[in-house]
Amino acid sequence: MLAYLLRRIAMTIPTLLLVSIAVFTLMRLIPGDPVQLMLGEGADPAQLELARQQMGLDQPLVTQYLVWLRHALAGDLGVSTTNGLAVLPLIWERFHVSAVIVLTAVALASLIAVPAGLVAAWRKDRPTDLAIIGAATLMLSVPSFWLGLLLLMFFGQYLHWLPVVGYVPMSEDFSQGLLYVILPIVTLVLVETGVLTRMSRASTIEVLRLEYVTHARAKGVPESQVLRRHVLPNAFNPTLTMIGLILGHLLSGIAVLETVFTLPGLGRLMIDAIFARDYPVLQGCLLFTACIYVVINLIVDMCYPLFDPRVSVQ
């Protein structure tokens, strides 16, 4: 078990290094001069040259990367060219908004989808299975932004139960802030439940065909115990992988939903940085979101032995 965890952690280090190289390279491939954009078209050439020297852009690319990496490891991702704020605290502030919505939505979707997929696989090709898989396919097929707009129109404009625009941090007013995140959470729950239900059903069907399940049934073990003790733990790992992928995807890119619901999250920050040509913020967001993917996949890998002890000896 310990050796397995150490191997996974060791594999994360070169992955993060490659991620940093990719982010740095992509930012340098973007057309345009960031210094020219910062100072404007009418800037004096001497001012442009001085700004490049101050930002280290006159150094070789390798030197620029090493300096940037050293600052990034120290928690310094630069300063926003739009508002002059430090990038990392700005990203962290926006990330809190996205994290509350995404973590809550994925947790609720998992609590619904895993049992639903288990039941659908157990009742395979029967009306219960067809109803569950039909509902999952429908939820999976609906675009999240369109579903969000429908919920806004129905619960916001028609029923007037929930606010349509704006955001209040729950740290300031929990009850009021909760009203602003209900619809984004419900939207993500409905969409992601479809994905996780289909994955849970497929993996459960594979496990139900294995010999040890047949053997347990032949010994007279109650069906509920077969599903709970023998099927669910072994069928959950593929679903756990999908949960990790969904978490990484949503935490790094729910810009569309944040735009629909006017939420000041991480995705919205990236969109604003792109339009403002705020390269330090955009570069910091890309590095931060890439690290989220890597860390979440590491956490998922470390959780595998909890559900399947055989993983620890691989």
From TrEMBL:
Residue stretches spanning the membrane: 12-30, 95-118, 130-158, 178-196, 239-261, 281-300
Cellular-component GO terms for this entry: plasma membrane
Membrane topology according to the record: Multi-pass membrane protein
Assigned protein family: Belongs to the binding-protein-dependent transport system permease family.
GO annotation, biological process: transmembrane transport
Pfam families cross-referenced by the UniProt entry: BPD_transp_1, BPD_transp_1_N
PROSITE patterns according to UniProt: ABC_TM1
Swiss-Prot/TrEMBL keywords: Cell membrane, Membrane, Transmembrane, Transmembrane helix, Transport
InterPro entries (UniProt xref): BPD_transp_1_N, MetI-like, MetI-like_sf
Domain of life: Bacteria
Main location: membrane
Signal peptide (from-to): none
Domain ABC transmembrane type-1, first and last residues per copy: 95-304
Subcellular location: Cell membrane
Record protein name field: ABC transporter permease
Phylogenetic placement of the source organism: Bacteria, Pseudomonadati, Pseudomonadota, Betaproteobacteria, Burkholderiales
